[in-house]
Fold Succinyl-CoA--3-ketoacid-CoA transferase.
Amino acid sequence: MQNLIAKRAAQELKSGSVVNLGIGIPTLVANHIADGDIFFHTENGLLGVTDVNEADIDPNIVNAGKLPVGEAIGASYFNSAESFAMIRGQHVDVAILGVLQVDAKGLIANWAVPGKNIMGVGGAMDLLTGAKKIIVTMSHTSKDGTSKILKECTYPITSTRSVNLIITELAVFEVRNGELYCIEIMPNSTIEEIREKTEAPFNEDCHNNGGQTR
């Protein structure tokens, strides 16, 4: 399921783009890039991150999620302040984020769960401010089967900026003028299943990517 989502997200990346990958499913996106002309950025100070396959990683180099990664030929290093200046200065073309929840307007919650001690907001707030395009990759429902695409987030939101695209194992949603549009039915999914498992209202403008429209 996670690789299905990551592979679909990789299709959104254009040649020459600078792309920041968040924690979780986003880290898998690099494994689905055929060409070597996507430049992966991590906010702890590396432009030129390679995929997370064991054969290619350097145990002495980690990404923002503290996972070992590799470095591409021609990669560059910089300090954290310079990295965040790149983000805030809109030099990152695409940020791909993992989230806990997303609401009907495309606002996300990805940094805090009330009552639990987790890492905190990290670079997500800055990426939502500075990256030119925001893609969310997430499972459609939580472990208990409840929708993670909600009318309104119940966890603290990360930013007042809406994301551009939401990719789950069931569907692809585009955010247009503060509304969700289902633009793609993922393989082995149906529009009925998407309706059933999505709390937030959405418009249907779907094409079929291996799923069923009826």
Summary: The first helix runs from residue 2 to 10. The domain at 2-208 is CATH 3.40.1080.10 (Glutaconate Coenzyme A-transferase).
